[in-house]
Structure formats: structure tokens, C-alpha cells
Write a structure and sequence with these properties.
Two copies of one chain form a homodimer. By secondary structure, chain A is of the alpha/beta class. Chain A is 44% helix and 15% strand. In chain A, the strands form four sheets. In chain A, strands 1, 2, 3, 4, 9, 10 and 11 form a seven-stranded mixed β-sheet that branches. A four-stranded antiparallel β-sheet of chain A has the order 15-16-14-17. The first copy, chain A, has a three-stranded antiparallel β-sheet with strand order 6-8-7, covered by helices on one side. In chain A, strand 12 (416-418) and strand 13 (427-429) form a beta hairpin. In chain A, helix 1 packs parallel to helix 8 (241-275).
Chain lengths: 637, 637
């Protein structure tokens, strides 16, 4: 079902119940953009990948959150689902509320609108959100404001000595306004007098003059926005003390309600977090990052803090993209694009799990084509997960069906996030050290800046075909398809005047050294790729780590299985017919994109170190009750 | 009338005719946002203002361009108008086309949608655009691509030696595909065979195998996007040489047409520029900046290059906001907000000029309320301009009516752009040195970071009320309302342990010195405010300056009139009742906004110096015919 700010309040109790009683959840997001530029490199380490994602992608907005709850009925042996599509838009609810700026990628908006996404509904009826820090800040500000109001009503005009002299050209106007106010006060015809059409300076003069000439016990002046853009002064008759008090109470009530409403989607994320349920996503790194960054706390610079943050908020997640790239699925699934995966799982040897809507009108049928509606994609992801899980069960002796979310069979896939566009199955291991994907067959090559991909493939042609991943206009990583040729390359392609070839690992080591040197004088040209681990807040973190390791079971690396699949490529170099276009964008060396729309790189404010630790410490309180529920849930199989 | 990409091609001839036969044009833009943050300072110099605008505002998108053409009919003595609303959106027309990223401000989108702006129409039917540099680049790329196609059709499989070994897990799949292709080729039932559901690596393997096993004269394989996101291989039977040639010609024709269409709105701007007509706008600095940046060439870092660029593209512009802030209007117009201005000009002593639509359905009636539709605002601006101009004529002896765009009475207002939020009437003088607004009454004050506005007003209270303009959490500019007290401040508020007070001019001088020192080692903390004048391309520029000065008449500074109005404020400090909110945002010191949506600061690529000069040199050719037309037009009064 569609959820906007018009029905958000209504559905909350139902949603809360659905989440609590579910056996697992699936999520998906739609975004205003994906990449700020051609940033990722096919041989990025997980840490480099995270740093790039954080600096390049978090300024797009998650505009639709799909949530699908799945519930298993023991009696029927069937799963049912309920799907929610939240429209998300940070419409500022007051002048002091955050007014976020966010980035859009033209092709992404074009894609969404071509899929029927309703942007008018988004901007009109989207549900707002606040991070915990924003909410706290706003609550404090509101309290101060209300206090200030209480004080100001008792004291008035304390600094009339410092009033602005009225410029000659405005005296007539000011006198005229005073006459109008007098007229207004001397008869009861109107409830209020609107003084519109004056700029801020004139409004200030009027305000000042009124304070000097009129009795504040008989009248009240306030500023009001009259058509979103313009502000007018509004004069009303003074209220009795009792009426004034009542009005103030109503106003405070209204302000509190506004703020509660403004928490919006963030409260859904908090609910999901508190539930501790297994969360399924397809290629979900970007979704997870956006959800944390937008609704919880800005993504930390430190990669290890990021891992802590994810596992703290979502202790059990499973990425169906990662799962379907691994044994025993990888040989049977030729494309892990969600739609393709679903199609493949609909045929032999798989048995697609049928998941009916729990309630008419609150879900989907598999046959429906609503691809790229976040709720539908979440639903499809959940169905794929169940089908994959049951396949694992079918391989057991005796066969096991259904395989439920807490089955040990799922352990190798839990808390691992697939990395797109990186060679070999590379993933973020949220609860351990990342496995190092094989890079023995990869070389860092420098060459004249006139060289194109063709020159590199020629250079390496004695060793078979290669994968070229550009770094700068005069350097690239080159990966061999025939990995057994690596030593031969090092024996043959020694340094020349034209080019240089070195092992990938040596190059990475050298960069790390340079970066360590640079860090001392923080020169502006140092790359952001290797984010130095934040050293602050160590104490808080250590205590958190203890909590974290006690909740989340560390898993032994299943890297061996990834190693076997050494010749599969997540995203490979284009086929010749596609190459022309890719070549274009290479030879353009980014200038077209840069010229085009002002390629945006977003700087973050300094001084956020330790923000994550603070968030975790604060969040810890509100998610305190989770562990218990999680254990209860553990016992349902 | 609304113009989208559906009717854009059709209306071009009519539009061209309207522009050429018009007597002046009015423009207005709607944007996805205005400010990246609380950047502007009330005492910015025009150069500082430009630097901030350029670095902070140009990443928003102009999404609607309003153009209103005004034509005077000598026989009737009446003006008529025609209004166009162009929806503007840079939908990438191909994979190699620019895919701009742009910024949105939540409150701006909220505002637009509340005014009925249709974002679905924008993203679906918006008209694209290309700067001249982008267009040139794309034309070159297209030519290269077409050449590459011509070459590749003759030579095939030249590097099959470097083919990728097919991994074991894919052999069955590849064999299966070959069988399907054989089947397809051996009967005529289908026109094409779509091989869908394979990832890029598998597609590459298929492509490679097909090249090895099948005769390229009997079949053709290409990649096609099948649902915007996914790509499939499409196999077709080979064509006869003649058919192939014909198909290639059609394809080239189609590609050229696509590129022509992609120039879109930029061609309208070029038309306007070539016409050399007087262009009216209300508070038009932002409009002019966006139009140049988005449709012509990225705004130059150098302020003087910016002025050259504007006057070159639009040799005569008039800002009704500036005009109505100046003599003889300033005393009679208490708010220069467009709606207020229009209302004021509808009453005595003004005589609102009635401008009927030239054609039914192509314009507005004054009574209509379509505020913030760009075309309507442009129309209203033109009407205000005519009314202001006629008022000038009415003061002449004998009275002159109508006052037409080339009247000498308008000279004091030509090519001056009003600066919002800056104290005193501060403006950019496009064709001369900027006048320095009075700053004798302004002081740079430093103080403990705990201080708030109240502490500053207390400190200065002996000298009357003050205007406080924050710089950092521990410094601010403080302006006296009673400017005659300036010397007294310097005599009284000498340095103390707690605070320091120095003249505005001294502080600015000091900053400039520091900046000159910093420039040597380009440390990252140096502020961008004082953009150093670009020194490159001096030769080109000098030759341009000669051209420019011969076209545009330099105007003697009319600064004296601005000086007289020394006590008027463009944007003033809030009145007490409004202060709470302002104080909130001060005490927040930007953190809420920064946390909120990832406050975006956009870095520009280096190496653009001289881009403006290059643009001007190139544009010079295409606008070569302008001067003559401009002179012809001069003779119509």
C-alpha cells in the first residue's frame, strides 16, 4: 500500500504489529541518483569502496522506501506478506526545521518517471524524517522558544532607547499605519488587521512604533507568512489572561505535534531496528547506507565504525545478491539482476515459493509487473530469498522445508554485503575482517596519456585478454583473464621508457605509505580513498564492541568458496560492440560530465568524529528492549 | 503558453519571429533551490557576492524559463505581449550524452509544488539543453562513432587470439545459446532473437563465441537496452549491402536529429542573445547567472570575466528591482517584491500600462493570479517596467509617453543588477567599476564565542540600534543605524580583553593581505570569497574588450543617488518577534542545516581558466550578425 503523510499516522499501529509479528522483513529504496561520477574501480578494496560510496553517493535522496513484512503460518505451512511503499520527502515543517539540500541525477529521475513514479505526490505528500540528533536539537530549540515566549509576554520594550530613527521617506507611511490600527481597535468589525506589502525594514519600523505608541495590553502584533514567500504584520486585539494562556497551551500542543509528525519515516526505521528481525535486501549496501545516513546518523568516516553502526542497527541482514553469487547458486544463476533472478528461480531446479498477500490490497501477486516500485522489489526480494533458502534445505539429507530465517543453513550468507562493479565476488563482511579477493593477476600500469584501452590490450595480448580499469588518464589497473599468466607478465613486461608495470599489491602498499606521509600536513591533494580510522571516542566504542560481539555471532570466513569462483565477473569490460560508447566516456576523461551539470562533490563539515559513537550510545538506550524480543523470536522454529 | 519537448520543435519559427519583431523581452526563471546555506553577508562587496553566488547557487537547476515578448504598435499606441513557459530538464538522450547532477532545496520544491508546478511533466517532457562546448564535443564524438562503425563493418575478429577462456560453469549455457541462434537463422519465423537475462560477462562470452562460430555475413549481433536498466543481445539476419547502407544512413540521420533536438533551450537563449533586444528581469542576477551557466558556459571564476560575459551575451539588460529602489521611485515604493510592486504601480501616482495578449491564449491578463509561473512573472515584470518607464516620461517637461526601451531616460538603470540581502542599494555595474556602498558606519567586531546578538546590541547601545551580520561564531559586522555615531564608536569602544572593534575597511584590507599571502601555498583553509582575477587568456580578452566597449556605452557612475538613500535597507535585521527564530539559527551555528541533508558544497574541476574567453571568442562568430540588427532596432522610435 502507498503511505504518504496523509495516511502515515493511521497506519502506524498496524505497521508496528506487522513488524513485530513478522518472521523477516525485506526492504528496498528508490533514489534520486546513484553515482556522482565514474568513481568506482573494479579492483577497489571494500574499504575504498565504502569511502567512495560515502563521499559520492550519500547526497542523493532516498525518495521511496519499500518495506515488505513476511509471516510464516505454521498451520498452513505458508508465508504471507504485506507491502508498504513510503513516499519520503523532507518538507521543512517550520522555519527553524532542517531544509535539506540533495542531489539528483537526471537519468535516475528520467528512469523513475518512466516507471510511473509520481513526483508531484512525492513533493506534496512525502513523509518527512529526522535523525535522532536533529530531533533532539529541535526539541531543545522548541523548549527555548516556548520559554522565550513566556518571558517576552511579561517584559516589553526594554530597549526602546536603541530604536531606529525613522527615515523621512517613511514617516507618512508609518503615520498612516497608526491611523489604520487605531481604526481597527476602535470598532469590532474585523478580527484582525493584516498589514501587507511592506519590506522587512518597514515592518521593523512599524513594529517599533506600535510598541512605543500603543498599549500592549490592548493589542498584539505578530508576523505571519502569507503566501509562503511574503510576510505580513497581523494586528489582533489583546486577549484576556485566561484566553491568552489557553491560546498558548494550544500553540504548544500544536508545536509538539508538528515535531512528532516530523520524525516520520525515521520512526519506521527505529521500529525495524528495535524488532531485531532478519532484514533481506537485494544488492542492499546502498539501501543500508542511505537508510542510516538519512534517517539515523551521518555515515561515519571510519570504515570499522560503519560496520559497527550497521550491525548495531540491524544485527542480522542478508543480501540476496551476495547469496545468489555464492555456492551452491553461482553456477545456476547467469544473471543476478533481481528480475532475472526471480525468473531463474521460477524454473528448475528451483521451486518458487508462493507468498500470498496477508490482506487483500496490501500486497502483490508475483505475476504483477510493478518492478522498481520499492515495495514490489522488496516483495520480490523476499520471495527470492525464501526460494534460495528452500533450495539449500532441499540439498540436505534429509531435505528440510521450509528453511526459516534462523536456520543454520543461512549462516554463511548473513551480514555480508555484495559490492557492485568490483571484480570477483567482493563483499563487506560486517562482523569480521574483510576477505581479500585475489589480486595476483592484477597490475598497476602507467603509460603515456595518449594511450587508450586498445594500447593496453595490445601490450598484454601475449597473455590473453585483459580487463582494464582506468585510474587516471595515464594509469590503470589491468587484470588478466588467464590468471596463471601472472608470473609470465612480471618476467616479460619489465620497466620500459614508455610504460611501467607493477603488482597490484605493491601499488596499494605504496599509496598507503604516501598517504601516511601526507596525513601529517594534510595537503589538499591527498586522496580521500583511504579514510584514516577515527581515533576519538575509543572508550565508548570499546564498550560498544563488547555489547556487539555478545549479540552477533562471529562467522568464520567462507572466503574459500569465493576464491573458487575466481573467473566470474561482477561487472566486466564492455563487449566490442558496446566499447565505442565506453571509449567515448574514457576519452572524454570526465570533462563532458563535469561541464554538463556541475558535477557535484559534497564536502562534509568537520568535527563529526565520534558522532557515530555518540549515536550508538544514545541509540543503545532506545533499542535496549530489542535483545529480548530477538531471543523470543529465535524460539519460534 | 506551455512549451515542452513535445511541442518545442513546432513553436520555434513562431518564437523566432516573436523575438525578432519584439521591442523588448522579459525573462524569469524557476529553480530547484536558491541557497546552499546562509552564505551571504549584509556587507558583501559585489565581487564577494558574485563569488558566493557562483560557488553556492549554480548547482541548482533552472527548471522553468519564462519568456515574454513585448511589441509596440505605433498605430494603436499600445503594447501587446506573448508569453512562453519552457519546461527545462536535461534528460540524457543517449548513453554518451551528459547526465547532469543537480541540487535541490527541499523548501523550494515544496514551494513550487504548492504553486501547482507539475514535476511529472517536467521530468517527462522537459526540454533538454547543451552548452556550446558540450554540443561541439558531442558532434565530434558522434562523427568518431560513425567512422568507427564504418570501419568495424569491414574488419572483424581481429583479436580473437586474445579471447576469454570460457569458464566451465558457462559452457552449457553458451552451447545452448548457439543452438538457439542456429534455430533462429534456419527459419524465417522471427525477425529478431532477443537474448535476455545474462550479465555483462556472459554477454561478452556469447558475443565472442558468436564471432568465432558464425559467419558475420549471415547475421548481426548488437546490444540493446530493453527496459531502461537491463541490456540484452539482439540477433538479426544480415542485410544485403544495399539495405545495410540504407539502414546506416537512416541511423546517422536519426543520430544527427537527436543531437539537434538536444540543443533545446540553449537555442532559445542563443536567439535572445542574437536579437540584442533589451532584456527586463526582476531581481535578475540569479536568472542571468543560471541562464549563462546552464545554457552557455560555466560561470567564470573571475568577476571581471563574468561582467564581460553578461554584457557580451546580453548587451542591454534592465533590472526592475534595481530601478524601483532608485530615484525617483524609492520614496514611493515601500516593497519591491514583484507582487507588491505591481500592486503599488496599479495606484496613484502611477498609471499601470495595459498590455493585452497579442494572440488569444498566448498571454495573460493582469487580473490572473499565476504568480511564480515563470512566464507570468516575466509578463508582470514587463508591465512594471513599462509603468515605471512611463512615470519617468511623465516627469519630463513636456511629458513623454510612451517611454520606449531605447529612451535616454532609462540609461541610469541599464546594465545594473540589484544585490539582494546586502545593505544599502548595492548593485553590480556591468559596464563600469562597481560603486562602493558607504561602510563608514560598519565595524568588524570579534568577541567570545558565547556571545549572541543581544550582547552585541548591548555593547553598541550607547550609539543607538545596530544591524548585526554574523561572520563566524566569534565575529560579526556591526552596522550603526545612526551613521553619524561612527567616530564616537571609534573614540569609545577601544580594544578590550573581551572584544575588539575595527573599521570595516581596515578589516577588508587585512583579509586581502592575508589572502595574497595564502595564495602562494594554496592552503585549503583560505576562503573562496576573494576570487583572484584570472590572468590567462589576456590577449583574447583584450581584443574582446575592444569589441565590447565599442558596442556598450560606458555609463558615468550614478552612485551619488545611491549615497543619498543611505538609511534604507534591502534586507534588515528581524523585528523582535521574528528574532527568536533567527536567533535559533544563529545559536545552531549551521549545524542543523549541515546535519540535515548533507549541506552541499560543490567543487569545480580545475583547468577551466580561460573557458569564458574561449566561449566568448566562439560565440562571437555566431552572434556576429547581432550588431546590425541591434542598430536597426535602435531606429524604431
Amino acid at each position: 500500500m502507498e503511505v504518504t503523510r496523509l495516511n502515515f499516522g493511521e497506519i502506524i499501529p498496524e505497521l508496528e504489529n506487522d513488524i513485530t509479528s513478522s518472521h523477516f522483513l525485506a526492504i528496498d529504496g528508490e533514489f534520486t541518483g546513484l553515482h556522482t561520477g565514474q568513481d568506482f574501480n573494479a579492483f577497489d578494496t571494500p574499504q575504498q569502496y565504502y569511502a567512495k560510496l560515502r563521499s559520492g553517493g550519500m547526497d542523493f535522496l532516498l525518495v521511496q522506501l519499500g518495506l515488505c513484512t513476511f509471516r510464516y503460518n505454521k498451520d498452513t505451512g505458508q508465508f504471507t506478506h504485506k507491502a508498504y511503499n513510503f513516499y519520503v520527502f523532507p518538507r521543512p515543517f517550520s522555519r527553524s526545521a532542517p531544509d535539506p539540500r540533495f542531489l539528483c541525477q537526471s537519468s535516475s529521475l528520467d528512469f523513475l518517471v518512466s516507471q510511473g513514479f509520481d513526483f508531484n505526490k512525492l513533493f506534496k505528500e512525502g513523509i518527512p524524517y529526522l535523525t535522532e540528533a536533529e530531533e533532539k536539537k529541535l526539541r531543545e530549540q522548541l523548549e527555548e522558544k516556548q520559554k522565550a515566549r513566556a518571558n517576552s509576554s511579561s517584559s516589553k520594550n526594554e530597549d526602546s532607547s536603541a530604536s531606529i530613527p525613522i527615515p523621512e521617506e517613511h514617516t507618512e507611511l508609518i503615520e498612516d499605519v497608526c491611523v489604520r490600527i487605531n481604526d481597527f481597535l476602535s470598532n469590532d468589525e474585523q478580527d484582525e488587521l493584516i498589514l501587507d506589502g511592506y519590506n522587512g525594514f518597514v515592518r521593523k519600523l512599524i513594529y517599533q512604533t506600535v510598541g512605543e505608541r500603543f498599549d500592549s495590553r490592548s493589542m498584539h502584533v505578530e508576523t505571519r507568512a502569507i503566501d509562503n514567500h511574503n510576510r505580513a504584520l497581523v494586528v489582533t486585539r489583546a486577549l484576556s489572561d485566561e484566553d491568552r494562556k489557553k491560546k498558548e497551551e494550544e500553540r504548544q500542543e500544536q508545536e509538539k505535534k508538528e515535531l512528532d509528525t516530523a520524525v516520520g519515516v525515521s520512526s519506521v526505521i527505529r521500529m525495524i531496528s528495535q524488532s531485531g528481525k532478519l532484514i533481506i535486501g537485494h544488492n542492499m549496501l546502498l539501501d543500508i547506507c542511505h537508510i542510516l545516513h538519512q534517517f539515523c546518523t551521518p555515515l561515519p568516516e571510519s570504515y570499522s565504525e560503519f560496520k559497527e553502526l550497521v550491525t548495531f542497527m540491524f544485527p542480522r541482514i542478508l543480501d540476496t545478491k551476495y547469496m545468489s553469487c555464492m555456492d551452491p547458486f553461482k553456477d545456476q544463476i547467469s544473471s543476478t539482476v533481481l528480475g532475472h533472478l526471480h525468473k531463474t528461480l521460477s524454473g528448475e531446479p528451483f521451486e518458487l515459493v508462493n507468498v500470498a498477500p496477508a490482506v487483500e490490497g496490501r500486497g502483490y501477486a508475483s505475476a504483477e509487473e510493478k518492478a522498481h516500485e520499492a515495495g514490489y522489489d522488496a516483495y520480490l526480494t523476499g520471495v527470492c530469498f525464501l526460494t534460495l533458502a528452500n533450495y539449500l534445505g532441499s540439498l540436505e539429507e534429509p531435505a528440510k522445508k521450509p528453511v526459516l530465517p534462523n536456520s543454520p543453513l543461512l549462516r554463511p550468507y548473513i551480514n555480508r554485503l555484495h559490492l557492485m562493479r568490483v571484480q570477483d565476488v567482493t563483499f563487506i563482511d560486517l562482523t569480521g575482517e574483510d576477505a581479500e579477493p585475489p589480486r595476483d593477476h592484477v597490475f598497476h600500469v602507467t603509460f603515456p596519456k595518449e594511450w587508450k584501452t586498445y594500447d593496453l590490450t595490445q601490450l598484454f595480448s601475449p597473455f590473453g585478454s585483459v580487463y582494464v580499469s582506468w585510474l587516471t588518464e595515464a594509469s590503470a589497473y589491468v587484470g588478466l583473464h588467464r590468471r596463471d599468466q601472472a608470473q609470465l607478465v612480471l618476467n616479460t613486461l619489465t620497466q620500459s621508457d614508455t610504460y611501467s608495470v607493477e603488482r597490484y599489491t605493491e601499488h596499494v602498499k605504496r599509496i598507503k605509505q604516501t598517504q601516511r606521509q601526507c596525513r601529517c600536513h594534510r595537503s589538499s591533494h591527498s586522496s580521500q580513498i583511504y579514510s584514516p580510522r577515527a581515533t576519538s571516542q575509543q572508550r565508548k566504542k570499546r564498550s560498544l564492541e563488547v555489547q556487539l560481539t555478545s549479540t552477533v555471532q562471529p562467522l568464520s570466513s567462507s572466503y574459500n568458496s569465493a576464491r573458487k569462483r575466481s573467473r566470474s565477473f561482477g561487472d566486466i569490460e564492455p563487449i566490442p560492440e558496446e566499447e565505442t560508447e565506453a571509449e567515448d566516456s574514457k576519452s572524454g576523461k570526465g570533462t563532458v560530465a563535469a561541464v554538463a551539470g556541475g558535477l557535484a562533490k559534497v564536502k562534509r563539515k568537520k568535527g563529526k568524529q565520534g558522532a557515530t559513537a555518540m549515536f550508538l550510545a544514545a541509540a543503545n538506550i532506545s533499542t535496549g528492549k530489542r535483545k529480548q524480543e530477538f531471543e523470543e523470536c529465535d524460539s519460534w522454529e
